[in-house]
Design a protein that fits this description.
alpha/beta; 6-stranded mixed β-sheet; about 50% helix; about 290 residues; Rossmann fold; disordered C terminus; about 10% strand; 10 helices; 6 strands; single chain
Length: about 290
């Protein structure tokens, strides 16, 4: 598959170039804001075959060429032996890019099917098993950063999922170190909108692999949130942008968690960014 190059489609080419610049700018800003990439890093781009991970790989390779520091990018896919998984698609695509890639073969599908009753969502266990295999590969191969393709909408959805169903103010961290300190996860697309990534994937004509090969029921709670966001975005343009800005502008003293703010001493939590820094981050992720 190749990007749009048909000379009869100049509008599509211009749209692709414009989107690519926007996505690269947003990813570059997120990488800078959260110090995701450092000189000498070996970045493992986790490629599922979905639109987001294809775009992330594309963007990281483009940024690699112009970054002020040198870093390595490798692509890794975990073949979980799901029925009907087209094993040729990713190797063929990655060979065309001419980059280092690895296909890890682990039959997590059988494990999940054995443990989870029919009709139940398997995503939770599947995710934990997948994470374990990817972490192990990263440690064995000198990987310093594990890049995942979660975008702005994923971060917002997770925030609301945790508020509605878990009673927590918790989202996905743009940069996260594992509890044992041996792995660092980064999310370079943290500032990128899903609808931009969807359109970019169409224009680039990525060989997208369906995510429902396992036959698992959809995460119904997440779908509720997605549907709610869709209505908000249609009826109140700009609301999602404002909501995401809130993730970058937290006031612990105006919440109710004594672990974040020492109310008895009326002192500010040390991790709270300055007003100027919060304003800069908000401006950097607003879309016009």
């Amino acid at each position: 598959m190749h990007p749009v190059t048909d000379p009869q489609k100049p509008d599509a080419r211009r749209e692709q170039q414009k989107l690519q610049k926007r996505l690269q700018r947003e990813a570059g800003q997120a990488i800078a804001d959260f110090s995701m990439i450092e000189a000498g890093d070996k970045i493992m781009c986790c490629l599922s075959g979905g639109k987001d991970s294809y775009a992330m790989l594309d963007i990281l390779l483009s940024l690699q060429k112009k970054a002020p520091v040198r870093f390595e990018v490798i692509a890794v896919n975990l073949d979980q032996k799901q029925p009907g998984f087209p094993q040729h698609v990713l190797p063929q695509y990655l060979q065309g890019l001419g980059i280092e890639y690895h296909i890890i073969e682990r039959d997590t599908y059988s494990v999940v099917k054995d443990k989870i009753p029919a009709g139940k969502t398997t995503c939770g266990l599947c995710s934990r098993l997948r994470r374990g295999h990817l972490y192990a590969f990263a440690e064995a191969n000198g990987v310093t950063k594990i890049a995942l393709g979660h975008h702005r909408d994923d971060l917002l959805e997770t925030l609301f999922l945790n508020m509605f169903y878990a009673g927590k103010l918790k989202s996905m961290a743009p940069l996260l170190r594992s509890d044992d300190g041996r792995n660092t996860v980064i999310r370079p697309l943290a500032y990128c909108r899903e609808k931009d990534l969807e359109r970019f994937a169409e224009l680039r004509d990525y060989p997208v692999i369906p995510c429902n090969l396992c036959g698992s029921q959809k995460n119904l709670q997440r779908q509720v949130i997605k549907d709610m966001f869709k209505v908000w975005d249609e009826q109140h343009p700009g609301r999602l942008e404002t909501m995401f800005s809130a993730l970058c502008n937290v006031e612990p003293s105006h919440l109710a968690d004594p672990q974040l703010f020492n109310f008895s001493e009326n002192s500010r939590y040390s991790a709270t960014p300055s007003k100027a820094e919060s304003k800069r981050r908000i401006q950097s992720v607003e879309h016009h």
